[in-house]
Amino acid sequence: MTRRRRFPSTSAATRARYAKRRKRRLDRVDNDLSTAQWNDLVLKWGGCAYCGVTTAALQKDCLLPISRGGRYTLTNVVPACASCNASKHNSEVSGWLRRKRLDESAFLLRHAEILRSLLRDGGGGSVSAREQDN
Ligand SMILES: [Zn+2]
To answer: Residue 73 class from Cβ within 10 Å (0-12 exposed, 13-18 middle, 19+ buried)?
Structure first.
């Protein structure tokens, strides 16, 4: 059963404006996720980072959405299926996981582990000291 939510205000013109704005935003930020890093991420997660589906094509999802200052970097991107990616959209990841009743702590733990192993394997990047809030 699919329920489509309609946003009457999103006309084609508005969407085009948003797309342009998004592109400008993307041009400004440094997006340094290499293809090799992306392949590593897909390999490590082995499916959608959120729901675990392995049969769907995976898309790059920014944990911190671009609209909130996120970037396409190794530490901010996870593979997501089209369904999760579309559902999460511009949401902040923790709140979205909770709303979807997905296991937030398991996700965060796995994400941290995967990053640690990727960075150790010579990802070259430096892990910024991130605050742990648990
Ligand atoms: Zn998914």
So the answer is: middle
